[in-house]
Design brief:
CATH architecture of the largest domain: 3-Layer(aba) Sandwich
Bound molecules: ligand P1T
Structural class: alpha/beta
Strand order of the largest sheet: 1-7-6-5-4-2-3
CATH topology of the largest domain: Aspartate Aminotransferase, domain 2
Number of helices: 15
Order of helices and strands: HHHEHEHEHEHEHEEHHHEHEHEEHEH
Number of domains: 2
Radius of gyration: 21 Å
Strand content: 5-15%
CATH superfamily of the largest domain: Type I PLP-dependent aspartate aminotransferase-like (Major domain)
Shape: globular
């Protein structure tokens, strides 16, 4: 179903149908995996079907996935990448040496590592702010600021920023806004509809949802921005393989069903942990105690399966995480199975210690990716390790 045809349909219907058409030769109901690197050309310099000249430039399985994410995010174009980081990199690579980016400070550790140790060497400057405070974002803008990059909820502190307000101030200053929507998923939050210019996913997480591939997706609502990103991807090469695109599209078709259960289980576990005497603090935007709960209710329609808790010390964090039966100790998130991670030593180890501590990513912070197992079993697992 093409973009126009999905207008007016609800999320679950779009998830199943957007980008998916019966295959024209056989009528196969499922999008085939076009596992090919190239396409025969009938005449020199004249590809058979427009852009199908080489697999880095175009692939029909990839295009089906791209149309799907574009529709899910309320945009017009999707651009698929080999990883979430490759998608973020492409958005920043629209800029040139001398340009400046204002970034939320509490992003995924790999995002700041790329900004500080790779892209800053190319002459792009980065400033970090606590984007919960919209004024702090405004104060960090410079004449050469071309991009504001935020993550909301943030990984792992579950901080939020006001997408609509930050989009407006970025645009007033002549900059664009990119929102890493990985933690929320398009089911719970659609940044493009709130004014963002790019919405980004590590599709390794909720969009694919089955922890069986690495991928990235960007959606935009502007043809020019889409063309920029297609060009950067074609020129730099971070394309996902057809099989991974096919798996991600299959995963995306059940996003709405999975997210309902992630949201339900996440909230139930956050509430249970909040009442537990061995837990100092719970970070979950769906809790009334979350300092940005009102913004969460305004900007999100559900609060995901990501829950962070502070248990005080590394010793307790280890006792908590190393003896669980259902929650596997692993990096990553957003899959149907539950995972647990100690960010200071795992996903955010590349963030300098003083900055980690200042943001609350202490050695006692534990991040749960609550899966879609039966809630009683998950709570029993937590109960056993927390005592
Ligand atoms: O791993 P990759 O697909 O390249 O995605 C990077 C990325 C981008 N944005 C966010 C918000 C992320 O959480 C990630 C990857 N995160 C983990 C691997 C993790 O365990 O937090």
């Amino acid at each position: 179903m093409d973009h126009e045809a999905t207008k007016g349909l609800s999320f679950g219907t779009i998830a199943i149908h957007a980008g998916v058409e019966p295959e024209p030769v056989t009528g196969a109901i499922m999008t085939p995996i076009f596992q090919t690197s190239t396409y025969v050309q009938p005449a020199v310099g004249e590809p058979r079907a427009g852009s199908y000249d080489y697999g880095r430039t175009a692939n029909p399985t990839r295009e089906a996935l791209e149309a799907n994410i574009a529709a899910l995010e309320g945009g017009t174009h999707g651009i698929a990448f080999a990883s979430g980081l490759a998608g973020i990199e492409a958005v920043v690579k629209r800029l040139s040496a001398g340009d400046h980016v204002v970034s939320e400070e509490n992003t995924y550790g790999g995002t700041t590592r790329m900004f500080n140790h790779v892209l800053s060497r190319l002459g792009i400057e980065f400033s970090y702010v606590d984007s919960r405070d919209t004024q702090a974002v405004a104060d960090a803008m410079r004449p050469e600021t071309k991009l504001v990059h935020v993550e909301t909820p943030t990984n792992p502190m579950m901080r939020l920023c006001d997408i609509e307000a930050i989009a407006a101030l970025a645009h007033d200053a002549g900059a664009l806004l990119s929102v890493d929507n990985t933690f929320a998923s398009p089911y719970n939050q659609r940044p493009l509809l709130l004014g963002a210019d790019f919405t980004l996913h590590s599709s390794t997480k909720y969009v694919n949802g089955h922890s069986d591939l690495i991928g990235g997706l960007v959606a935009v609502a502007d043809e020019g921005l889409a063309e920029d990103l297609y060009f950067i991807r074609k020129s730099t090469g971070a394309v996902p393989g057809p099989m991974d695109c096919w798996l991600t599209l299959r995963g995306a078709k059940t996003l709405h069903v999975r997210m309902e259960r992630h949201n339900e289980n996440g909230l139930a576990i956050a509430r249970w942990l909040e009442d537990h005497p061995r837990v100092d603090r719970v970070f979950y935007p769906g809790l009334e105690s979350h300092e940005q709960h009102e913004l969460a209710k305004r900007q999100m329609s559900g609060f995901t399966g990501m829950v962070s808790v502070d248990v005080g010390t590394l010793e307790r964090a280890k006792a908590f995480t190393e003896h669980m039966q259902l929650f596997a100790l692993a990096e990553s998130l957003g899959g149907i199975e539950s995972l647990v991670n100690v960010p200071a030593l795992m996903t955010h180890a590349s963030v300098p210690e003083d900055r980690r501590e200042a943001m609350g990513i202490t050695p006692g912070l534990v991040r749960l990716s609550v899966g879609i197992e039966d809630i009683d079993d998950l709570i029993a697992d937590l109960d056993r390790v927390l005592g």
